[in-house]
Predict the 3D structure of the following.
Amino acid sequence: GAVVSQHPSWVICKSGTSVKIECRSLDFQATTMFWYRQFPKQSLMLMATSNEGSKATYEQGVEKDKFLINHASLTLSTLTVTSAHPEDSSFYICSARETGGVVGNQPQHFGDGTRLSIL
Amino acid sequence: DQQVKQNSPSLSVQEGRISILNCDYTNSMFDYFLWYKKYPAEGPTFLISISSIKDKNEDGRFTVFLNKSAKHLSLHIVPSQPGDSAVYFCAAEGSGGSNYKLTFGKGTLLTVNP
């Protein structure tokens, strides 16, 4: 089945540091990837849609300068949390939807998430 | 405004019995529905989906039913196994084009007791 790899799985860093999270589709191409954030005991909240070769589309209330997204290839999207502060601590999850000529509904497949803790 | 609702935060079922997880939605533009299973500190795992042109989809022990007129879908797991214990999320996708965003419910914690 479709596999999405997310790295790193856990990051602990000091306030003011920038952190990069990678999301890779391992066995399929994905022109569209998604970044979510999950707070404890809450649902997944979509942060942004990452489009290969173009700018990401951010959801309302998400700071694009804080959460930089780059989707440089059909199998890789990165999320960089710039100048991270304790309130950015959360569980970040990416997903990818298989594209490349596939017709019809396709499920999104998720990475295992990244636990980000800012001290 | 919550467009996808899972009104039961938790459900407890005995091993071997049927688990029924429910989901309601309000947006009539949703045309693709999915169920995901999630363990703590892991990403969601895709289980089963259904297109709005169908009312039932079955895959092994998992069956999803869709009632468009009631804007309601349900996931049936039978027989339930202890390994099924997890949080189950219902998700809905809007109609076509370049918009494949998923809207998630808040999840239902299923506990299957041996």
Q: What stands out?
A: Chain B has a mean pLDDT of 93.
